[in-house]
Design brief:
Elements (H helix, E strand, L loop, with lengths): L1 H17 L4 H13 L3 H11 L6 H13 L3 H18 L2 H13 L2
Helix pairs in contact: 1-2, 2-3, 2-4, 3-4, 4-5, 5-6
């Protein structure tokens, strides 16, 4: 499994090199790094991505990274930031799904 993650990381880094503003690729790279015990590196990449675009997906992935680090205040803060976008841009069903996720980490 680790080799597949290494391949995914390599591919995502090439995508990001070709398109440094590709938020989906950056978010995916951050998530994979977090899942592979490179939490600090993943969080750094995701925080830098917020300089490119304020994205609910980045905030949600950041929240998961901080959850792995057991940093409850930053976990909740980032879930709440993701929730603000949901309230403004998503359907009500999506908002309630994220709301229940945020509630379970309080």
């Amino acid at each position: 499994i680790l080799k597949k993650f290494d391949i995914a990381i390599d591919i995502l880094e090439k995508v990001i090199d070709a398109d440094p503003k590709n938020i989906k690729a950056i978010n995916s790279l951050g998530a994979i790094l977090i899942q592979n015990d490179k939490v600090d590196e993943g969080i750094k990449i995701l925080n830098n991505a917020l300089k490119i675009e304020d994205s609910p997906f980045i905030y949600e992935t950041l929240a998961l990274g901080y959850m792995v680090k057991k940093d409850n205040s930053k976990t909740i803060l980032n879930f709440k930031k993701a929730r603000i976008f949901v309230d403004l841009t998503w359907r009500k069903d999506d908002a309630s799904t994220l709301d229940s996720t945020c509630y379970s980490y309080r």
